[in-house]
Amino acid sequence: MNEVSDLNMAPKKKIIIDTDPGIDDILALLLAFSEKSADVEVLLVSLTFGNVEVKSCLRNVVSMFHILEKEMKWRREQGRPEGFDALRARAPIVALGAQDPLEDQKMLADYFHGVDGLGGIHDSHPHLTPQDAWEHLFDPTHEPVELKPVSAEPNAHQSFIPSKRVAHEEILRVLRENDPDTVTIVAVGPLTNLALASAADAETFLRAKEVVVMGGAVNEPGNVTPVAEFNAYADAFAAARVYALTSPSPKSTLPPSKSLPDFPPNLSRQLTLRLFPLDITLKHGLNRGQFRKAITPLLETGSPLAEWVSAFMAHTFATLERLHANQRGDSAELSLHDPVCVWYALTADDEGWKPSEKSPEDIRVETTGQWTRGACIVDRRDRHPVDGDEESSSDHGLWLSRRAGNRIWRMDKSPAESNFGEILIERLFT
Question: In this protein, which residues make up the domain named Inosine/uridine-preferring nucleoside hydrolase (predicted)?
Answer without folding.
Answer: 15-383
